[in-house]
Design a protein that fits this description.
2 copies of one chain form a homodimer. Chain A is of the alpha/beta class. Helices cover about 30% and strands about 20% of the residues of chain A. In chain A, helix 4 packs parallel to helix 5.
Chain lengths: ~180, ~180
């Protein structure tokens, strides 16, 4: 069992609404950590992570989308002014992948996150999409982030939503 | 990365609506095979599968629910008359697990499948629930099995739905 090709897992990441760039949102970190702890485990050569961050056009002012970052070095020559914002977010996750020893690719796209994530699934055909959500505990399941809900319905690959842990929920649960 | 405890994945399985017991439905086999090929891969010691089959009360006439089957031997002394029906379904998956070398537990419950699966998630706390669905391809995403849709909303663990492949869809796509 297990083909020779690694299992390709796309993880959609976003910035923190509390701390802003370059901090990753609580639910992004939850989705990433769950993928490593529960799925990849020690089998780092069996998996490849595709890290995607979608920037809403109004929020940014640069055009570093469509570049691919595959190692910490790829970020070193890129730091000037506002350009670091989304890139630092990717760097956080790419650095973690390199520490763990798992292959990854990370890239930025602009647009409506839920639609762009589904379009990138269609383009890159991952085996699984992992999306974090702010889901508010067992008795409030009605609320799930629109990105995760949209992707579960429309992404053309299996999707798993990782809900934020109750003990990580900020004072205002809309924050992340 | 990877705790010492194996990742526990619950797979909900059902009988074929075309062939009946003891045949597994197409979508059950798809969910099981996806779990092995894409998640477990060669890391069999890192995972444990929890195989659950929920029988609708009207459909059966025996009370072998709540037994746990963990090896092919457990089934040998059980064959008499109608009792084999659901048990043979579990045996199919338990045998596959033993061939692959992955630990498993399999059991039968009675009730409404979507509610019982969620209750069993609450009771056993798996790290991931995998549910097959008859999902009818990219342009018919609106239709997904009620079990998978209900579990995605209500199960208290991450859920992934594995849609049946287009080339495995029977003539009547409601069949499985």
């Amino acid at each position: 069992m297990g083909s020779s090709e690694p299992t390709r897992i796309m993880v959609a990441v976003s910035e923190s609404t509390i701390k802003g760039y370059p901090h990753a949102s609580i639910s992004s970190r939850g989705a990433f950590d769950w993928t490593i702890e529960k799925i990849v485990r020690s089998n780092t050569s069996g998996f490849k992570l595709l890290i995607i961050h979608v920037q809403v056009p109004d929020e940014d002012g640069f055009d570093d989308t469509n570049r691919i970052y595959a190692s910490p070095e790829d970020f070193r020559n890129m730091r000037h002014g506002d350009k670091v914002r989304g890139i630092c977010l990717l760097e956080y996750f790419v650095n973690k992948c390199h520490e763990i020893g798992i292959a990854c690719e990370a890239w930025i796209k602009k647009g409506d996150p839920k639609e762009v994530v589904c379009r990138e699934v269609q383009r890159t055909h991952p085996d699984l999409l992992v999306v974090g959500s702010r889901g508010l505990g067992p008795f409030q399941r009605v609320f799930v982030g629109t990105v995760s809900e949209f992707c579960m319905k429309h992404a053309e690959c299996p999707v798993v939503t990782i809900k934020r842990r109750a003990d990580e929920t900020p004072e205002d649960p809309v924050d992340d």
